[in-house]
Every structure is written in C-alpha cells, then in structure tokens.
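Q: What would this chain look like folded?
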Amino acid sequence: MDGNKLDFFERIEKPKHQEFIYLHNNCILCKSTLELQHVVDFQGEYINEEANCPECKLKVRNRSYPLI
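A: My prediction, written as structure tokens:
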C-alpha cells in the first residue's frame, strides 16, 4: 500500500474522523455508549454485529459481514 494512503487512514485525530467514531459508538438518542455483540458463523462464513443502547433499550444496528 502506498505510504500516503496508509498515512491518510491512520489520522484519526481529525475532527471528521472523531465525529464518525463517536456516531458509530454512541446512541443517537441519549448519547450512551453502545453495547456491541459479534457472532461468528464459520459455516455460513459471516460475522453478525448487533449494536444496542443499554439506556434506551434501542437496537441501533444489525449488520452481517462476510468472512473472506
């Protein structure tokens, strides 16, 4: 990988990166830290991610990622 591209991805101190990280790790309603649960299905070859808010009891996301 080109050194400049790697450098770009490593700079998480930028405000936009910090905002992105905050939005993906905190509840949109109450700002609490989300609880993440990951389940690996080796036969189906995917990882299922669920994010829930412990305060609101809100299911924020449910995504599946393929194992490559």
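The two ends are 19 Å apart (CA to CA).
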